[in-house]
Specification:
It contains eleven helices and 15 strands. A hairpin with an 8-residue loop joins strand 8 and strand 9. Helices cover 33% and strands 22% of the residues. It is of the alpha+beta class and 371 residues long. It has a seven-stranded mixed sheet, sandwiched between helices. A four-stranded mixed sheet has the order 10-13-12-11, sandwiched between helices. A two-stranded antiparallel ribbon has the order 8-9. Among the domains are: 134 residues, no CATH class; 124 residues, no CATH class.
């Protein structure tokens, strides 16, 4: 859902007698992501009358963005007025207005300085048209959603850490340091997960802990993506523990980091389905991995070389975070293994479901309230 759609989804918390009425939408080609921008012709209805505005959308919006958006709105409005004049006198100009999610005090000052009207999802409304002036400080509650996805990319680093120790209470600072995502980003993800019921805390000043482990890992499976950015399929003549150990040792001697996943990441008692591919995460040279494991470019493909996406190629909450000790080398943590099987082919989803049951049954009972 675009920000424009979410802006109009629910009524704004504005005072009685003040409302915004959308009249028409304009799609304007532009350079950059999406290739187009959407503007709306809106009527701001006030007790003293209506004010026509031309509205742009930007979330988040920073003070430095205001002058450029003002010029764009004024230029577009002038073009619309000329087209609508049919050679007669130009109609009165529309007031340039920007809609955003949360307007800071600095942003409000910038809009007032540039003669740009402003509205946000909390009910803030600043408008000075000459004939009408209104300044409303929004009081509605709004939680800004992180711009990056929560369940894949950088956000999945926090998910891995949370699922590694669900009974532990985490501060934002601890999560930021462990995942190297930045304090503001970590706070946004954690509060969003709390709002959705996956996390809880005793008070606004206390740390977070997982409230619904089953729901959190299910959300990762349903809303996430495959962690591997690239998967190269090979044939391994041998996938015994000794062969895998020799391959891992050869990579380590070359300074190449790797961690096993899929069938190579299972303990003997965890195997449920047959015909599962083996796999290893590594960003090392393909030729080095081929030589280390004796891989061949032929069928049947029973060994996957998986290149983690950029955000997961790290020990800071990535695929190398808290590896499991296996007889032949390190394996990805159990939650990551569940995700990898879920997005694999064949009977991978069956194996993922069995592992998910084992993971949830092994979790300790939580105390009544977080510390």
């Amino acid at each position: 859902m675009s920000f424009q759609e979410s802006f109009w989804k629910d009524p704004l918390p504005l005072p009685r007698g003040v409302e915004l009425l959308r009249q028409d939408s304009l799609v304007v080609p532009q350079r950059g992501p999406g290739g187009q921008a959407i503007y709306d012709l809106v009527q701001v209805r006030l007790p003293q009358g209506g004010v026509p505005v031309l509205m742009a959308y930007r979330a988040p919006l920073f003070p430095v963005d205001v002058p450029r958006l003002r010029e764009r709105l004024r230029g577009l409005d002038e073009e619309l007025r000329r087209r609508g004049s049919a050679g007669r006198g130009l109609p009165p100009p529309r007031v340039p207005m920007i809609a955003t999610d949360v307007a800071s005090s600095g942003l409000i000052e910038a809009c007032e300085r540039e003669d740009v009207a402003l509205v946000d999802l909390r009910g803030t409304l600043v408008l000075n048209s000459g004939s009408a002036f209104i300044r409303i400080q929004g009081r509605g509650r709004f939680q800004r959603t992180p711009r990056a996805p929560v369940f894949h990319g950088k956000g999945s680093r926090l998910i891995r850490v949370l699922l590694s120790e669900p009974g532990r209470t985490w501060s934002i600072r601890q999560m930021e340091e462990l995942t190297q995502t930045g304090y503001g980003y970590a706070q946004g993800v954690m509060t969003l997960l709390e709002r959705d019921g996956y996390l809880e805390r005793a008070s606004r000043k206390s740390g977070f802990r997982v409230r619904d482990s089953a729901g959190l890992i299910r959300a990762w499976l349903d809303r996430g993506k495959r962690t591997a950015a690239v998967v190269d399929a090979f044939n391994a003549p041998s996938t015994t523990a000794d062969s895998l150990q020799r391959g891992h040792s050869a990579l380590t001697s070359l300074g190449i980091r790797s961690v096993f996943t899929l069938a190579s990441g299972l303990r003997p008692e965890e195997r449920f389905a047959s015909g599962l591919p083996h796999g290893v995460y590594s960003s090392g040279p393909v030729d080095s991995l081929i030589q280390a494991f004796g891989l061949r470019r032929m069928t049947p493909h029973n060994f996957w070389v998986m290149r983690p996406d950029v955000a997961a190629d790290t020990q800071a909450g990535g695929v190398y975070f808290m590896p499991r000790g296996l007889p032949h080398g390190p394996g990805v943590a159990l939650p990551q293994l569940i995700v990898d099987f879920h997005f694999s082919a064949g009977r991978g989803k069956e194996q993922a479901e069995v592992l998910q049951e084992r993971y949830l049954k092994a979790l300790p009972l939580l105390p009544e309230s977080p510390a």
